[in-house]
Amino acid sequence: MKVKTILVSQPEPKMENSPYLRLIEKEKVKVDFRPFIHVEGVNAKNVRQQKIDLNNFTAIILTSRNSVDHFFRIAEEMRFKVPDTMKYFCQSEAVAYYLQKYVVYRKRKIYVGKRLFSDLTPMFKKYKGEKFLLPSSDVLKPTVPKMLDELGLDWKRGIFYKTVVSDLSDLRDVYYDVLVFFSPSGIESLLKNFPDFEQNDTRIAVFGNSTVKAATDAGLRIDIKAPTPETPSMTMALQKYISDVNK
């Protein structure tokens, strides 16, 4: 069956040269974007209940833009003036760049990984004496605390925001040829919003092993998978599939 419509369970990319635009132009398909999950901040009282005092930390571990936003939001709510001596360990360049929204970059001690959390290992080893705070969502990859514990760091996790299922009730009678998922939370949202969902001819595209597992556990048929050696990105996987079935 040919593919004409795709729903991506994420916000629309803001880049002008988004690979989805190339996909739309090349394959003449309609692509809509809709976040199946969203993030909600917890309040300062909730953070205090986690026995977190921001004065006790000398370094912050930032894994995403959300962690940046919510750390500084909580600091403001707690009337905590973040000292200039604070060290920032950012998982990627994108996170470090986003940090400039809140701090004067060249005047701060910022350490940046390439992309994966494990890329920060040499920097953590170098600054083992710091007291680390990890502001995170209620959903956290188990590899993160495991690695921090194995390195013997003095660290504490704070849940500063939560991943929440979005209301998709307006999509109940809308049909798409392909649904695209990037996280187990996206699959969870689909099933919570539409407990009677029947896949039938709908193709499911998934990114990453944890999303593959969530889709399989939910009894969904996976038609498109990324990353693979041949198709390292989701748009490449979609392009290959569509060019095959739309012949």
Q: So what's the CATH class of the largest domain?
A: Alpha Beta
**First-last Cα distance:** 10 Å
Helix content: 25-40%
Taken as a percent bin, the fraction of beta residues is 15-25%
Instruction: Output the CATH topology of the largest domain.
Output: Rossmann fold
CATH architecture field of the largest domain: 3-Layer(aba) Sandwich
Count structural domains: 2
User: Strand order across the biggest sheet?
Assistant: 3-8-7-4-5-6
The count of strands amounts to: 11
Write down the overall geometry. Answer: elongated
**What is the typical, i.e. mean, pLDDT?**
95
What count of helical segments does DSSP give? 9
Query: How would you characterize the largest beta sheet?
Result: 6 strands, mixed
Provide the structure class: alpha/beta
Order of helices and strands: EHEEHEHEHEHEHEEHEHEH
- Low-pLDDT stretches are none
How big is the Rg? 20 Å
What can you see in these coordinates?
The protein has 247 residues and is an alpha/beta fold. It folds into two domains: 5-36 and 167-245, 3-Layer(aba) Sandwich (Rossmann fold), CATH 3.40.50.10090; 40-163, Rossmann fold (3-Layer(aba) Sandwich), CATH 3.40.50.10090. Helix content is 32%, strand content 23%. The chain is built from nine helices and eleven strands. It has helices at 19-27, 44-49, 65-77, 93-98, 121-126, 143-150, 184-193, 209-217, 234-245; strands at 5-8, 30-33, 37-41, 59-62, 87-90, 109-112, 131-137, 154-165, 178-181, 203-207, 222-226. The chain has a six-stranded mixed β-sheet with strand order 3-8-7-4-5-6. It has a five-stranded parallel β-sheet with strand order 2-1-9-10-11. The longest helix is centred in the first third of the chain and has 13 residues, at 65-77.
